[in-house]
Amino acid sequence: MRRGIRLRSWSHRGGVSAIEVLVACAVISVLAAIVLPAIQNVRESARRIQCQDRLRGLVLATHEHIAARGQLPETSAHRSSPIATGGSPSISVHTEILPYLGFQSLSLELNRSEVLRFSWGNGPPSSNHAGNQTALRMILPSFVCPSDDAYPGSTNYRVCMGPGVRLRPPRPGWICNDPLGGLGPFVHAHRLDPGDIRDGMSNTVLWSERVLGSHGITAVESWRDDWQYSQMPGCDTDTLVAYCRRPLDPVEGVGIWNGATWLIGSWRTTWYNHADVPNARHPDCTRATLGVAVPEGSHSARSYHPGGVNVGFGDGSVRFANEKIDLRPWRAWSTRHSEDNPDE
After folding, report:
1. Which letter, b or e, does each residue of 279-318 get, where b requires 16 or more Cβ atoms within 10 Å of its Cβ?
2. Close Cβ partners of 71 (under 8 Å, ≥ 6 residues apart)
3. Residues near 290 by Cβ (< 8 Å), separated by ≥ 6?
4. Exposed/middle/buried for residue 93 (C-beta within 10 Å: 0-12, 13-18, 19+)
5. What is d(CA 215, CA 7) in angstroms, rounded to the nearest whole number?
6. What is the DSSP string of 170-204?
7. Helices (H) and strands (E) in the chain — how many of each?
8. What is the pTM of this model?
9. Of 204, 128, 111, 118, nearest to 161 (Cα)?
10. What is the largest CA-CA distance in the chain?
């Protein structure tokens, strides 16, 4: 008799009600909602640290170049005429420091005098030289932020051209002058000496990061691509930034090839400026002109790291710049001698 009762009791305890199943599912859902974001945050934190390590490596490679050559790498070595030939105006800083990143053989395979074509609106960069064409499709981990999706040949890391939207300092007689132009640690068509950075390397940003453009692979995005206008007013940085921040009219064009290659020195690929704050909530915008390789405008530091971007200073330190930083100190970081900065 006791056995029978025990058997019936065992059979009864084996059942699970629908309510119990629903409660268990609810508990699992709550736990997943708590745990999964925490896991994602840990992963992104690890990616941000890896990104900082790569930026630090680029700064150190820049210093090795300085030790070997006595000058900072040129942003536009082996320039050609982009308007006359359809080619890019320059070979990038990234290319100049390849030997100091462990890519000596790749550096030797490149033809620095061969014109590089860059069809900005219709296609990716291309080259007539086999070694260059291979490089245009080569992913080098040193140039890729783990928080972004790498495309063939792409780069997230860029050199700092200063706070201005124009490449060179003002000159008497020029129609278009920008008081903030040419104040950065890298200047188009010039090799600077370390002594030119009078603010000191520890106070001057050399490198930062920018998200890649859509590259025709995904839909056009205002966060990644830049809006183009042919009738942007004025030449100075503040006027152009204010134009970018206004409610946008229909754009005349979209630059989708941001970061398309580490090989070419240009605003679209390997340069950026501090004209606007990092992770600006409005699109970067540029002047659509015939000189397609160097469209002036806002080329902001941007990243997928929550809350800001990584910046590499000249002393080898890497800091996380909060996207809410005030514009004045952000611009001051980008100048080689702040006494020449009208914002100071």
Report:
1. bbebbbbbbbeeebbbbbbbbbbbbbbeebbbbbbbebeb
2. 191, 192, 193, 194
3. 83
4. buried
5. 69
6. --TT-SS--TTTT-SSSBTTB---GGG-TT-GGG-
7. 8, 10
8. 0.83
9. 204
10. 112
pLDDT in tens, 118-160: 554 456 788 778 888 889 899 999 999 999 988 999 999 999 9
CB atoms near residue 344 (< 10 Å): 12
Name the stretches of the chain with pLDDT < 70: 1-16, 32-33, 35-42, 44, 77-89, 115-123, 247-250, 289-295, 339-344
- How far apart are alpha carbons 232 and 250 in whole angstroms? 13
> What does the block give as tokens for 328?
């004045």
Three-state secondary-structure class, residue 115: coil
Q: How many Å apart are CA 311 and CA 110, to the nearest integer?
A: 29
Of the candidates 339, 336, 334, which has an alpha carbon nearest to the alpha carbon of residue 321?
A: 334
Secondary structure (DSSP) of 246-314: SPPPPPSEEE--TT--SSB-STTTTEE--SS-TT-SS-EEEE--S-TTS--B------SSTTEEEEEET
User: Which of the 8 DSSP states describes residue 334?
Assistant: T
Give the model confidence (pLDDT) of 151-178 as tens digits.
999 999 999 999 999 887 877 777 778 8
Residue where the block lists tokens 């736990």: 31
- pLDDT in the model for residue 343: 55
Give the residues across from 208 on adjacent strands: 158, 311
